[in-house]
Design goal:
The chain has 103 residues and is mainly alpha-helical. It has one helix and no strands.
């Protein structure tokens, strides 16, 4: 009976040791899975940041182009206003000329 108790003690101790080792290895490999997931998430976030930087650059370029177009349009508007003013002046001058020599 004593011998049976000793054998049972050794067997149960061995089982507990195996369970402990399995637990330790599962924690070690489970941590590496978390690391891989973290790296994937990190890469995904970095890609999103890069996309945002690219889109920001495109928007800045479009903004600069738009400012150039607005400046050109303003210049054309000023030239047109000058032309209209010149035309009005010419029309008034012509009207004055006609009045002057109509008499």
């Amino acid at each position: 009976m004593e011998k049976l108790k000793k054998i049972w003690l050794w067997v149960s101790g061995g089982i507990m040791a195996i369970v402990g080792l399995v637990f330790v290895f599962s924690k070690m490999f489970g941590g590496s899975q978390e690391k891989r997931q973290f790296k994937k998430d990190k890469k995904k976030i970095e890609d999103e940041i890069e996309d945002v930087k690219t889109k920001t650059k495109v928007v800045k370029d479009k903004k600069a182009d738009t400012k150039k177009k607005i400046a050109k349009a303003d210049k054309k508007i000023k030239e047109t206003e000058k032309g209209v003013k010149d035309t009005k002046d010419a029309k008034e001058t012509l009207a004055d000329f006609k009045k002057k020599y109509k008499k």
